[in-house]
Design brief:
By secondary structure, the chain is an all-beta fold. Helix content is 0%, strand content 55%. The strands form 3 sheets. A 5-stranded mixed sheet has the order 4-11-10-6-8, with no helix packed on it. The chain is rod-shaped, with a radius of gyration of 31 Å.
Length: 169
């Protein structure tokens, strides 16, 4: 149950005689591929229900190799219809029992629902590409404008007709 994943080779030696009593010997190599269970676990993605346009949102995840074999060429990447920063993380070989952390940023520039995914790829012990997709949605809204008192100039100027020594804060 804890054998290293690879192909183990056995040598089979055959010795026999034919009906005339002549001796024969032969040798064969037998390959036995051993695969171990691969398992990559992740924490849940923590995404806010609503975000403001143009504001960077952190998408983070913890991940763990809880299987019985090393994962090769492990890569995490954010995909979606939004701007990204630090959107990919190449881990490389990820040993059994290891854990790590990934954090990338997404920035929505248009209002509405944005669909995205955290895509995790790695190769199993036979070189086959495996993929895990963790989809998410972001609802981007415009930042509300603050309400100012009547006559307030948002640039910091006092209302017309007031003393120049009074400033509204």
């Amino acid at each position: 149950p804890d054998a290293t994943p690879k192909t183990y080779t056995l040598t089979a030696n055959f010795e026999y005689e034919d009906e005339k009593g002549e001796s024969y010997e032969a040798q064969e190599l037998i390959g036995i591929p051993v695969n171990q269970q691969l398992r990559l676990e992740t924490s849940e993605l923590d995404i806010p229900a609503e975000v403001f346009l143009g504001e960077p949102i952190s998408i983070s995840v913890d991940f763990y190799n809880t299987g019985k074999a090393r994962l090769s060429n492990l890569m995490l990447k954010l995909e979606g219809d939004f701007e990204t920063q630090n959107a990919s993380y190449y881990v490389g070989n990820f040993e059994v029992g290891s854990s790590d952390y990934f954090e990338g940023m997404v920035i929505p520039h248009t209002p509405g629902i944005h669909e995205g995914a955290l895509v995790i790829t790695y190769e199993d012990t036979s070189g086959e590409l495996m993929e895990i997709r963790k989809p998410f949605t972001i609802n981007a809204i415009e930042m509300p404008m603050p309400e100012f008192p009547p006559g307030f100039d948002p640039e910091g100027m006092p209302p017309e007709g007031s003393s120049k020594n009074i400033w509204w804060i």
